Amino acid sequence: MSGIVVIGAGQAGSSLVAKLRMLGHEGAVTLIGAEPVPPYQRPPLSKKYLLGEMELERLYLRPERFYDENDIALRLGEEVTGIDLTAKMISLGNETLVYDQLVLTTGSAPRRLPASIGGALEGVYVVRDLQDVDAMAPEFKPSARVLIVGGGYIGLEAAAVAASKGLNVILVEMADRILQRVAAPETSDYFRALHQGHGVEIVEGVGLETLLGEGHVSGARLSDGRQLDVDFVIVGVGITPDTRLAEAAGIEIDNGIKVDALGQTSVEGIWAAGDCASFPHDQGRLRLESVPNAIDMAECVAENLLGAGKAYVPQPWFWSDQYGVKLQIAGLNTGYDRVITRQAENGVSFWYFKGDTLLAVDAANDARAYMVGKRLIDSGKTADADVVADPDADLKALLRA
């Protein structure tokens, strides 16, 4: 069977094949996933699923019958091992599959600790897929001691779950502050205080020197000489785009699989979307790690597979849930030179400006600030900084300016 073949059955892959059928495409469509379960949501893994508040079936993006009903060949638990560009064929173990158009939605992979510092010990986990979370879930026992390495959103979300379940939590961040790579000091300060208020010990500016243990992790030594006793470890030190298949096939790579504005790679007939793909943006290139980008970019590529010729224009937004706080982020804060804090009745928002231009908004339990900020950014408008700073001013007036 030829037709359109999609490698990677995550959010992007599932969105792409669904969009093809919604647009009326009647040709053969195949979606291949390495995991043995239908495409599912990943964000709840480190939140509600780990807390035990969401059952497996509720994670599924669509009921499994959706793929049969829409004549989508869903091949699960199968690893693609190579792409033959000349024959337009992929290898799955001892089998080959011919394609007319190929889409790579291979996502990303978590960075792991080197084995030389104990990364291969039992009891050391990452948070990326269902298997990871199912493996660590039995460790979440009240009073257990967990070390979380990395103060990004994944690490903080894992810390929130662990603290909520009564564990003793210490989080170590090598940078000067948590969230340093992705947020302003004001946002870092807010979440540091939130976690400390729930009993989490946060250690910043200190790295992990090595993990200790025979077979199973039992301790850790930090770069400041401090030694900890731990029962298990969660590593949240970022992700990298999964470009292995593309690289091996000779497809051009540039901080991910390099695509043009339409989503086409350097090889005709091969496309990419989601976490694994970098696309033109402003004067450079951009790769976004988020569910909204995976959906929007995949749907754009689906349209272009059918001849739309539509350039992908991202409208970035992100979210994180920690304890009872919902953080919503609109825009990209790269290049900001000042941050304005706006207090709300039950929340707070941080507005990023470059000069007079609004770049991004971090809104914690403040849906109104998020909504207004996102609409302004998406429409290319800015915000009056005096209005933003005044908690009594009507934010919606910014939309009428």
From TrEMBL:
InterPro entries per record: FAD-oxidoreductase/Apoptosis, FAD/NAD-bd_sf, FAD/NAD-binding_dom, FAD/NAD-linked_Rdtase_dimer_sf, Reductase_C
Q: Which cofactor does it need?
A: FAD
- Name the Gene3D superfamilies for this protein: 3.30.390.30, FAD/NAD(P)-binding domain (3.50.50.60)
Q: For the FAD/NAD(P)-binding domain, which residue ranges apply?
A: 4-298
What domain of life does the native source organism fall in? Bacteria
Q: Extract the SUPFAM superfamilies matched here.
A: FAD/NAD(P)-binding domain, FAD/NAD-linked reductases, dimerisation (C-terminal) domain
Q: Which residues form the Reductase C-terminal domain?
A: 317-399
Which keywords fit this entry according to its UniProt record?
A: FAD, Flavoprotein, Oxidoreductase
- Cited PANTHER family: APOPTOSIS-INDUCING FACTOR 1, RIESKE DOMAIN-CONTAINING PROTEIN-RELATED
Q: Mind telling me what this protein is named?
A: FAD-dependent oxidoreductase
